[in-house]
Specification:
The complex is a heterodimer. Chain A is mostly helical. Chain A is built from six helices and no strands. The chains are: A mainly alpha, B mainly alpha.
Chain lengths: ~170, ~110
């Protein structure tokens, strides 16, 4: 049952990801990327990583993709203005990424073996446990992430300003 | 113990993440619209996130999931700054075609 759910989610997410890359209309790209993120959030639920599932939906599908959608609408991009690469370039990209996939799968095949543990804690992905780890072991990186966000915010506002006359 | 650890080999997650990552690489290589290129990068980051979360659950170690959290933070900051730069470029060139950006060279 679990295996069936996993395989269904995997196939669906790969199909959505392919649509993201292949569709001509950038708005469709954004919408299918949101669907891909939902399938990945479902994978997190399957792994009992509930905090990550919620954060994935709120941050990725809710914030980042809405930002992308806003910029697309703002710039008024559609199918007609979409630039296309030449056929030769597309074939080269297909060969390059296919070779990368072949290399990754070939190199990792049979090397990743985790023995089934006698007992495992299935509660690690819950908010309570992750919050405790985040605010004890990882409190310094957490604060630095805050500074990173502040810098990114200031940088985005400065870059986006229309003129820098004071 | 979780059902998923008993029934699904970790290799399946490795293969799924590899496929998603390579689709992202293909998108970066093949698209000329800079916004879609940024979205492909998000797809690659998500593939890595999925693998980190899978290993974290299989090894009963919360640090992998914390790492996923920080990757999401960096992705959000990157998207904000990248789209800001993109809007500025569009204002100057009236296009988001990345092949026009080689004028940066001169």
């Amino acid at each position: 049952m679990t295996l069936a759910i996993f395989l269904t989610l995997a196939v669906v997410s790969v199909i959505f990801a392919l649509i993201v890359v292949f569709t001509k209309n950038p708005v469709h790209s954004v919408l299918f990327l949101i669907l891909t993120f939902f399938t990945i959030a479902a994978q997190y639920v399957l792994l009992n990583a509930q905090f990550l599932a919620i954060v994935n939906i709120i941050v990725y599908a809710g914030a980042i993709m809405v930002l992308f959608l806003f910029v697309l609408m703002l710039l008024n991009l559609n199918k007609e203005t979409e630039p296309q690469k030449s056929v030769g370039w597309k074939i080269a990209a297909g060969i390059a990424s296919g070779m990368l996939l072949l290399t990754l799968v070939g190199a990792l095949k049979g090397t990743v073996q985790i023995p089934i543990p006698a007992e495992s804690n299935s509660q690690i992905g819950l908010v309570k446990n992750l919050g405790r780890v985040l605010f004890t072991e990882f409190v310094v990186p957490f604060e630095i992430a805050g500074i990173l966000f502040l810098a990114a915010m200031v940088g985005a506002v400065m870059v986006g300003k229309r003129d820098l006359k004071r | 113990m979780l059902e998923v650890i008993r029934t699904i080999p970790i290799e399946y997650y490795v293969y799924l993440s590899s496929v998603l990552f390579c689709i992202g690489v293909f998108g970066v290589l093949v698209r000329r619209n800079a916004i879609v290129v940024l979205m492909s990068i998000e797809l690659m980051l998500n593939a890595v996130n999925l693998l980190l979360a899978a290993f974290s659950t299989y090894l009963s170690n919360a640090q992998g999931q914390i790492m996923v959290f920080f990757i999401m933070v960096v992705a959000a900051a990157e998207a904000a700054v990248g789209l800001g730069i993109l809007v500025m470029i569009f204002r100057n060139t009236k296009s988001t075609d990345i092949s026009l950006l080689d004028r940066l060279r001169n």
